Amino acid sequence: MAAIANVALSNTFDEWRIRTNQSFTRLNQFAVNESSLYANTITANVAFTSAGLLTASGRATIGTNLNVSGNTTLGGSAKTTTATGLVTVTGRQTISTNLDVSGNTSLSTGSGNTVINLNSARITDYCEHAVALTNSGTTQTIAASSNVVRYTLTGNLTLTLPSGQPEAAPAVKTIVVYLKQDGVGTRTVTFAAPAGESISYNNSATQPAAQTGASKVSIYTCMKFDADPVWYISLSYIDD
Q1: pLDDT in tens, 13-61
Q2: What 3-state class would DSSP assign to 104?
Q3: pLDDT class for 87, splitting at 50, 70, 90?
């Protein structure tokens, strides 16, 4: 059948749809007057252009890209919006109900700082990331992204704390440092502060020494608050 250019439809469209079961090479434009286009009616290539408000009260399946500009609401009362592929949000996204996330998810703003307010909610069944146990050598600088680091002391170690911590405000950065002597032992560790910062030790003017026995463990806790140039360090565990 030849292409149909413009069709003016009234309430007789439903009758036309029921009596017609054909494929069309193209339907350019529908001018619809008080009629509904029901599902499974048109299966050929159809272009719908909405210059104003487009309301889909039933099911809409989009097999290619959908570009939406301006304010958009997805899902109404008791409705579910499901995304099985990649969803990219370049602006602000507001979620007023529950958000279920499965798989690996990154939450960040442009500066890399994200504030998540749990409103006194309880967190269960979670683990902190701990850097794998590595040989220390004689110098190490703790990465700013680390909260738990672990070293096997293979030499007398100078351990430098990360600068510019914490990155957000108001906030505190806590780093747990796990140190284990190698099979030789006798290794020492000295904490160093970044430029412009200093270190204060718990109830002591000097750094508490790590256990020096072979294969013995010492654990230090390091804390720093924003707008405070001081790292507060305590020896929280030591082997007998």
Answers
A1: 555 555 555 444 444 444 444 444 544 454 455 566 666 677 776 677 7
A2: coil
A3: confident
- The amino acid sitting at 237 is Y
Choose among 186, 185, 144, 173: nearest CA to 233: 173
Exposed/middle/buried for residue 168 (C-beta within 10 Å: 0-12, 13-18, 19+): middle
Report helix, strand or coil for 133: coil
End-to-end CA distance of the chain: 91
CA distance to 52, 144, 157, 179, 182, per residue, from 134 (Å): 61, 17, 13, 10, 11
Tokens 């806790």, residue? 221
Which residues are CB-contacts of 75 (< 8 A; sequence separation ≥ 6)? 81
> Which residue type is seen at 13?
F
- 25 Cβ contact partners less than 8 Å away, ≥ 6 residues apart: 1, 2, 3, 44
d(CA 212, CA 207) in angstroms, rounded, equals 14
Largest CA distance in the chain: 94
Strand duo 217-225 + 172-181: pairing? antiparallel
Structure-block tokens of residue 117: 């307010």
Give me the half-sphere count of Cα atoms (radius 13 Å) on the Cβ side of residue 30: 17
pLDDT higher than threshold 60 for residue 146: yes
Selection from 138, 229, 122 nearest residue 190 by Cα: 138
